[in-house]
Specification:
heterodimer, A: mainly alpha, two-stranded antiparallel ribbon, 2 strands, globular, B: alpha+beta, Alpha-Beta Plaits, four-stranded mixed sheet, two-stranded antiparallel sheet, 22% helix
């Protein structure tokens, strides 16, 4: 017997989540790589290549998940309306442009690659929003959430990688602070929209409630505090910043994994009116499993 | 201009799942795949608890979200409103499955059989490797409709040009036909009865109507 209430979708699993995780963090890292390259073009190697590796890993995971992997070029056929096609088109442009920029130390081209990377994250966000069958994905506030967490993860990754090198751009700490605040606002807004009665399946809201405090405290407030201390007390700042960045990164990945794999209950079924088996004896309908 | 739709009279359905079985036999779908099935919905509060049986499946929406998201242009809409899949082009990404609010899509990666891991006669006869690793769903028995029409039959009126779930229904719950034809059974039923469509608020414009009360 099939369930009437919303059920957890099983079509997109951990590999799809890996694409959102790797793609967002990688594209975010690429942006800060391109900006840092204006101070020192060595960053193109140090963080540019890991950024591409992350995006590539995410795409490879998805490629391994699809049912007919050798037809993958067909993914490019519906760019007129499919955000997945647009994501693939963005990725197709991103890799050659970024690789040439890195190989030839072309800062301007790296900036173009970073902009394509931003378009790539935007496509990922719109992919989720276009998934009408999953209420927590189609919520419009997911777009700023996915964008902001990609940028936050990129900034965090940059700080973590940069900790291994003697000099790093000083503006990265304030950038991560701003990104964290932006992501916290996006998360709170997204959650507030879904807590409105009738906005999401009950079990989806339960999952979002479960992850809220860990994400808010360990993923935002704690790293924000550590970053403030790091800015105020230069000795030990490198370690504190790396810890804060690690927490920010982990929270972003946990958030995306939870959205894709744990909170993604489908629409379920509903009847607007119950059948009137005797004329005039109809009943109100039912939408089981919703808040 | 033709717009094929299905009508389910909720006052008549007894939840026997004959339509489900007929669809499975006709399409030889794997054990857990049901292109047509009947929900058992309980509603109300104790002691006023009621029950309704609701046939569901692909709703052949006029504005199908599965079509919009499909990256390979695999899902397409025929001129008569039927939403179809080109199995030779699908990459099996399942994006359509998460876009569909009616849980109508399935992807099966390997051959699966109902008993003992080996195919029954009907499964062997209807086995189609093109349906592995790709998205599948109800197509309103488009082949039957097309073949029937080529012989001058009328879908929804002549059983040989009508989806098997409709033919098999023991309670006259399911009807099929052309919404644009005012003389069709579906048009008449929708004129004479009050109806709704599921999840209409999502803007999908489903081609599946549920009757619940006389006008």
């Amino acid at each position: 017997m099939r369930a009437v209430e919303p059920e957890l979708q099983r079509n997109w699993g951990g590999q799809a989540a890996a694409n959102f995780i790797g793609g967002g963090a990688g594209a975010g890292l690429l942006l800060f790589t391109a900006l840092a390259a204006y101070q020192n073009s060595l960053w193109l190697y140090r963080t540019g290549l890991p950024a591409l590796a992350l995006i590539g890993t995410g795409l490879t995971c998805v490629w391994l998940e699809i049912g007919r992997p050798w037809r993958f070029l067909n993914v490019l056929r519906h760019g007129g309306s499919s955000w997945m096609s647009r994501e693939a088109l963005a990725a197709s442009a991103l890799f050659p442009v970024a690789l040439v920029a890195i190989a030839l130390h072309l800062r301007g081209l790296a900036l173009i690659a970073a902009l394509i990377g931003l378009a790539f994250i935007y496509c990922q966000a719109r992919m989720l929003k276009a998934a009408t069958g999953i209420p927590v994905w189609r919520e419009p506030a997911i777009v700023p959430l996915i964008l902001s967490t990609g940028l936050t993860e990129g900034a965090a990754l940059f700080i973590i990688v940069a900790a291994a090198f003697p000099a790093r751009p000083r503006w990265m700490l304030p950038v991560l602070i701003v990104a964290l605040v932006g992501r916290l606002v996006a998360w709170q807004t997204y959650r507030a929209h879904l807590r409105v009665p009738g906005a999401a399946p009950r079990r989806s809201v339960e999952v979002l409630n479960q992850i809220h405090e860990p994400v808010r405290i360990a993923g935002h407030l704690l790293p924000l505090g550590l970053l403030m201390i790091a800015l105020a007390v230069p000795p030990g700042a490198r370690l504190l910043a790396a810890v804060a960045a690690g927490l920010s990164l982990a929270a972003g990945w946990y958030l995306k994994y939870s959205l894709v794999c744990r909170a993604s209950y489908n629409q379920g079924f509903a009847i607007v009116h119950a059948p009137a088996r005797s004329p005039g004896y109809g009943h109100a309908g039912a939408k089981p499993g919703w808040t | 201009m033709t717009r094929y739709v299905m009508v389910a009279d909720l006052r008549r359905c007894v939840g026997c799942q004959t339509c489900t079985a007929a669809c499975k036999v006709a399409n030889a779908t794997p054990p857990w795949v049901q292109w047509r099935w009947v929900l058992d919905v309980e509603y109300g509060e104790y002691p006023d608890v009621w029950r309704a049986f609701v046939p569901v499946g692909c709703q052949h929406c006029a504005n199908p979200p599965c079509l919009e998201v499909c990256p390979s242009g695999t899902t397409w809409q025929r001129g008569d409103g039927i939403v179809a899949i080109n199995y030779d082009r699908c990459i099996g990404c399942s994006y359509c499955a998460v876009a569909c609010p009616y849980q109508a899509r399935y992807k099966v990666d390997g051959a699966e059989y109902a008993y003992d891991g080996s195919p029954m006669e009907v499964e062997r006869a209807r086995e189609d490797p093109r349906r592995l690793g790709v998205s599948t769903k109800c197509d309103f028995c488009a082949d039957r409709i097309d073949q029937g029409k080529s012989r001058g039959l009328i879908p929804g009126q002549d059983p040989e040009a009508t989806p098997v779930c409709v033919n098999s229904c023991i309670a006259n719950t399911l009807y099929f036909g052309d919404l644009k034809d005012p003389q069709s059974a579906v048009s008449r039923l929708l004129r004479e009865n009050q109806s709704f469509r599921m999840h209409e608020e999502l803007g999908t414009e489903p081609g599946f109507y549920y009757l619940w009360e006389k006008k």
